[in-house]
Amino acid sequence: MKITLSVIKADIGGYVGHSSVHPRLIETAERMLSQAQEKGEIIDFFVTRVGDDLQLILTHTNGLENERIHKLAWDVFEAATEVAKELKLYGAGQDLLADAFSGNIKGLGPGVAEIEFEERRSDPVVIFMADKTSPGAWNLPLFKIFADPFNTAGLVIDPKMHPGFVFEVLDVHTGKMARISTPEEMYDLLTLIGSVEDYIIKNVYRKDGEIAATASVEKLNLIAGEYVGKDDPVLIVRCQSGFPALGEVLEPFAFPHLVAGWMRGSHFGPLMPVPFHHANPTRFDGPPRVIAAGFQIAEGKLIGPRDLFDDPAFDEARHLANVISEYMRRMGPFEPHRVGPDKLEYTTMPQVLEKLKDRFQ
Ligand code: 13P
Ligand code: 13P
Ligand code: MG
Ligand code: MG
Question: Of 123, 184, 186, 298, which one has the fewest beta carbons inside 10 Å?
Answer without folding.
Answer: 184
